[in-house]
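INFO batch 0412 | record 1 of 1 | parsing
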Amino acid sequence: METAAAALQRAASRGAEPAGTVRVTASEVMGVEVLPPIFATLRERHPGLVLELALGSRVQDLLRREADIAVRMTPPEQGQLIARRVGSVQLGLHAHPAYLDRCGRPASFADMSGHTLIGFDMVTPFIRAGARRLGSISRDSFALRCDSDLAQLALMRAGAGIGICQLALARREPRLEPVLPGQIDWPLETWVAMHEDLRQNAACRVVFDALVDGLTRYIGA
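INFO prediction complete | emitting tokens
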């Protein structure tokens, strides 16, 4: 629950210049690879802002004020939230060019059987739904298993094998080359959400708007 001190701080942030603490929750890969430039611009334009970034796969409860704003890859299901859909993040298979030079470039899913595949360990409902888009590829197909998106990305960048990465992220990464481009259709709806009670909070509003704008640009890049 929000403390009295935090509530007073939020009330003070409703002046002309946004100021105060805003806590944003997001996945690891979004928080590390996508959000930092947005946060840097926010701090440059609004030095009175204090930004907290909570990263992880657990969905923090905005109604209980575990965070002020959430960047989510699934549609928010709770009521009393202001939510904006910013687009769909497309996923695809990628690998380091050095790995593909060494092991060959698959021309079909059948060719993947001879490759080192990087993927998930625990089979969650989210993974189970998305894995249907990978054809015959399953948990047993992965020689390198990890539930951290950042660790999977690091393994791909190191040339360890073929894994799944956001297309928008891979396009700006020279160490990643598409594998079987266009043969996987795995879109993740991306949303920015906050509690409706914060709509008049200047600090939360400016961060919310910056995230919507920045993520829309990222997805469309």
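INFO post-check: The first strand starts at residue 20 and ends at 26.
INFO record closed
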